[in-house]
Design brief:
By secondary structure, the protein is α/β, with parallel strands linked by helices. The chain contains 14 helices and eleven strands. Helix 9 (243-249) links the parallel strand 7 and strand 8.
Length: 392
């Protein structure tokens, strides 16, 4: 591959790519998500990363998902690895052991000579397949780092999505970089998202946005608001595969819970963000609800709104706890999610109130909306025949 001489306006992104490749050279595994609408240059950045990795002597395995292949299991991984595996010295694969090779043959056509014709990987047994692919990547990375570059992942088939989730949840113990290019608004067809009240958001107003928190999926689904804001999130979420790396690249605001200096820095960062005309999004519960019920609020968002004289914008979400529960990682079934944007609360209406009074008021507003939102979501799911199977 030939390195491009110029990639105008992408200095920060290119610096991030170089850092990831340097980490790969040091033996660490990483993942990167390139997100954005069609035409903004995701594929171009992916190609640039592949070129730079190739120049460092890394093994670059590239695949692309397509809308026409969503019924073909593991199609994006087959596109990325199958041709390479076909040319691989069989003696290298022998190091994996017969059982692993049999599992890999259920994914990659080039390995069909290893297939057990009586072996059919059931959905609940796919963890063996995921483990086998992880071991394969570790084997390939023994000699030189591996970059697995997957484009148009929003079109990936369900089996590829679940395998990708497994790899990101438990990364290979080897220098492997997994890179995804995806359109964040091209939601998985298993997630039907309805947004009510989007017109209430004034794009020229900087808000302190506050929402209930049911699932890690909330972070992705709230992009369907189609408005700009900066997340405030606990520092652990920035380490979560795909979602966390996207948060880091977008320079969202980190918080180390229970650490007073971190809280003070978070508040200062929020003040700078609001002063710059950008909204901030906070989960005042502080953590995901394990059962979907609204937890007690913490005062940070409300202190910030009073201190800055900034409008509060309450938002309610329901359905994500069922789609991706607190202890789960892989979507199972089909789910209907609803978001409701409530009326903004102007600073003049709470200037005379204490932080505690304001916090309790907003808690009651969101708590009052949750039951009706859940009822409308359930009715929509029933009417569409889209009630999903139980999740992990």
């Amino acid at each position: 591959m030939r390195l491009s001489e110029h990639l105008v306006g992408r200095a920060e992104e290119l610096d991030s790519l170089e850092l990831l490749l340097a980490r790969l050279d040091e033996g660490g595994s990483s993942a990167l998500e390139l997100t954005g609408e069609p035409g903004i240059g995701k594929t171009r950045l992916l190609s640039e990363l592949a070129a730079r990795a190739d120049a460092r002597g890394h093994t670059v395995l590239s695949g692309r998902a397509t809308e026409l292949e969503r019924d073909l299991p593991f199609s994006v991984f087959v596109d990325a690895l199958d041709e390479y595996l076909q040319a691989l010295d069989p003696r290298r694969l022998a190091a994996l052991g017969e059982g692993v090779r049999v599992e890999l043959a259920t994914v990659f056509p080039s390995l069909e000579t290893h297939a057990d014709r009586q072996r059919v990987a059931m959905q609940e047994e796919r963890y063996r397949t995921y483990r086998a692919v992880r071991q394969l990547l570790e084997l390939l990375a023994r000699r030189q780092p591996v970059v697995l570059a997957l484009d148009d992942v929003h079109w990936a088939d369900p089996a590829s999505v679940e395998l990708l989730g497994a790899l990101l949840r438990r990364p290979p113990s080897a220098p492997v970089l997994v890179v995804l290019a995806v359109r964040p608004r091209q939601m998985d067809e298993r997630l039907s998202v309805t947004v009510e009240g989007r017109e209430k958001i004034d794009r020229d107003t900087a808000y302190v946005m506050v929402a209930n928190h049911q699932s890690l999926l909330d972070i992705l689904v709230f992009f369907r608001l189609f408005t700009h804001f900066k997340w405030v999130s606990k520092i652990e979420n920035f380490r979560v595969p795909v979602v966390g790396w996207n948060m880091s690249l977008n320079r969202y605001i980190k918080l180390r819970r229970g650490d007073k200096p971190s809280v003070e820095e978070m508040m200062a960062a929020c003040e700078r963000t609001l002063a710059g005309g950008n909204s901030v999004m906070m989960f005042p519960e502080g953590t995901r609800s394990p059962d979907g019920k609204l937890k007690t609020f913490k005062h940070g968002a409300f202190t910030l709104a009073k201190r800055m004289g900034t409008p509060l914008l309450p938002i309610v979400i329901d359905g994500t706890a069922h789609a991706l529960p607190k202890r789960g990682f892989v979507l199972r079934g089909t789910y209907h999610i609803r978001i409701r944007v409530l009326d903004e609360i102007l600073p003049a209406s709470f200037a005379h109130k204490s932080v505690e009074e304001l916090m309790d008021e907003v808690w009651r507003v969101i708590a009052g909306e949750l039951p009706t939102l859940a009822e409308s979501r359930a009715a929509a799911s029933f009417s569409r025949g889209r009630v999903g199977a139980s999740a992990l």
